[in-house]
Amino acid sequence: MNSNNTNSGRRQFLVSATVAMGAAGVTAIATPLVSSMLPSAKTKSAGAPVEVDISSLEPGMMITQEWRGQPIWIVYRTTQMMEQLSKNTQFLADPDSNSSEQPAYCKNTSRSMSSHPEILVVVGICTHLGCSPVSKTKVGAADGMSSDWPGGFFCPCHGSKYDMSARVFKAVPAPFNMRIPPYKYLANKKILIGDDQGEA
Fold first, then answer.
1. The sheet that has 183-186: what strands, in order across it?
2. What is the mean pLDDT of residues 152-158?
3. CA atoms of 8 and 33, how far apart (whole Å)
4. Between 199 and 175, whose confidence is greater?
5. Residue 123: exposed, middle, or buried by beta-carbon count in 10 A (0-12, 13-18, 19+)?
6. Radius of gyration of the chain from Cα atoms?
7. Please, which residues bridge with residue 184 across strands?
């Protein structure tokens, strides 16, 4: 009787141990398998909207944020930079942004939202062959440009030039103004790049 109880107890123990080990093995295999099927953080951020904190952005400053593998420039233009925009018209290939890509709410001289006209949000890629221009925001020869330079962006690859609204100058290789992505302002001095639902 005792021998049977002992064998029965051992059997139960072995069955329980086997089930527990099997469950642990399935979990060990399933966890990485399921995890590998989920999109990575990099994949999510590649197409998803990106939130940017601009609370530390001051006049004259520019920050860069990546969105969909592209550099997005957020520029806080000074009063002088804003005043220069209307003076550039005669030198620009598309001053009214008729041939260029931007949301309807940014089709204006500043190429920005009317609620924050001093903030430029732009894809920092030259529209010629996809190089990344450099910031040459100082007026005149201070940034290594010509004495009549109004401030803006310069593409070192083939010499394309853009003003502080990322509008392309005449007689340069780039055919269009730099692209403005969809975006909107959130609370607490944040911008959401890649989503402009609710903006008009």
1. 50-53, 190-193, 183-186
2. 94
3. 37
4. 175
5. buried
6. 28
7. 192
* pLDDT, greater one: 115 or 199: 115
SS3 content of the chain, % helix, strand, coil (to 5): 30, 20, 50
Average pLDDT over residues 98-119: 94
In the DSSP assignment, the letter for residue 70 is E
Residues in the chain: 200
Select the more confidently predicted residue: 127 or 130.
127
Residue 27 has pLDDT above 90, yes or no: no
Instruction: Tell me the sheet residues that pair with 193.
Output: 50, 183
Q: Which amino acid is present at 136?
A: K
Domain boundaries, the chain: 2-38, 45-193
Residue 140: name the closest of 125, 130, 150 by CA.
150
Matching CATH number, 45-193, of 2.102.10.10, 2.130.10.10, 2.70.98.50, 3.50.50.60: 2.102.10.10
pTM above 0.90, yes or no: no
Of all residues in the chain, the percent with pLDDT exceeding 90 is 67
Residue 194 region by backbone torsions, left for phi larger than 0, else alpha for psi between -120 and 50, else beta: left
Question: Coil, strand, or helix at residue 75?
Answer: strand
Q: What is the pLDDT of residue 39?
A: 46
158: its two tokens:
């083939």
